[in-house]
Amino acid sequence: MNNWRYQLLLILAALIWGGAFVAQSAGMDYIGPWTFLCLRSFIAFAALSALMPLLDRIRNTEKPRTDAERKYLFKAALCCGAALCAASILQQAGIQYTTVGKAGFLTTLYVVLVPVLSVFLGRKIRWNVWLAVMVAMAGTYFLSLSGMEALALGDILLLICSLLFAVHILTIDHFSPHTDAVRLSAWQFLVCGMISLVPMLVFEKPAVSMILQAAGPILYAGVMSSGVAYTLQIVSQKNLEPSLASILMSLESVFSALCGFVILHQVLLPRELLGCCLVFAGVLLAQLPEKKQTAEADSLPE
Fold this sequence. Notes:
Layout: H1 4-27, H2 33-59, H3 67-94, H4 100-107, H5 110-120, H6 127-144, H7 153-175, H8 181-204, H9 208-213, H10 215-237, H11 242-249, H12 252-263, H13 270-286, H14 295-298
């Protein structure tokens, strides 16, 4: 399969995001959601900007030369950054009111919402992708929940968050083929940081001492989860259909459970192990090749 490299990059991104659930939960012990989001976004922008000359040489690319290219990048960054900011702040706030396991499950509902929204955009979704969606969602249910309780405030925030992450995935799918992936990733974080700066200063007014106590989680979320993983997402989505990309990224629910086992020494229950297996099965189902056209169909006149 020609795009297997990009699928591996998305799986790596999901691994990084899985660890970010631990960082986000830990960081919220010291600072508010707007502060966490603002700082991680500016750190991601700074890290990517510092590495940009090196990345350009490695990838043999150049910054946009024409006004049209710069305007397109600016427009893409505004749209992607706004969608990312809205989804991220709801996720960060929702984690305060519910468990990390349920947060992981509800966030990865974008794996269902992406193909549904794609249908409204006129995309044709293959049967195996729909089947993979159902299997993957069953897996995340067993992995994250022992049962569905009544929806609380945190659950509602995370449901809206999953919808906005689906919008973010489709927005990247629209813009990424026509602009530089690394620059789009960097500038979307600048937009996200600028949007969250005012609420941070108005509503939370963080103390420097509290920020320093949360420095580890903020740096992980800023450099790894934001800077590295979201860049991998944009690079990969240039070459993958959004429904497949969303299924691969939903592996973050598996990796969050594994990170909880390794870092927090949480034991995986048999139900959770079953969930891991189902999510991986969903990913494999999504890899089934599309049915090729017959020779007769290929020979028909245009």
